[in-house]
Amino acid sequence: MTQRSEFPHQSKTLNYEDPAPYLADVFGLPGVEQLQAIIDGRFPAPPIASHFGIEFLTASVGDVLLAATPDASHYNPIGSIHGGFAATLLDSACGCAVQSTLPAGVGYTTLELKVSMLRGITRDTGRVTVHGWITKPGSRAAFAEADIRDSEGRVLATASSTCLVMAP
Fold this sequence. Notes:
By secondary structure, the protein is of the alpha+beta class. It contains 4 helices and 6 strands; from the N terminus they run αααββαββββ. Strand 5 and strand 6 form a beta hairpin.
């Protein structure tokens, strides 16, 4: 039996900025402009993006595109990417799609997320894109869907989400 001390050790350093100093400025913008400011580098990406290597690619009202590259640090005990990696990407895309429809000063939180895993993901999958879109905007609740695709366009996972819209 292999002893723990014999396992090769790897490490991953996370670098992120505390969003607190920027929150007032961020919430002073409509949601789509908040996302565009992250894409343009005017505001830092949220810290969760560092954990999962999430890249913000495009944002328009009701539609967002993200990307990430799975690596061995995302593996579960059976040697594939943990479902939480896909769920986090899908939740982020659904949430950002909702955010893109909101006026300045209004936030959201996920109430429900249904995820369907359609294909396995490993580090060999490479960079994946995550598309999120609104199915029904709302002032109290909003509904969104998302999918993850590999570089060949195959759908790896899908999600539907209900988000609570929170006005001040």
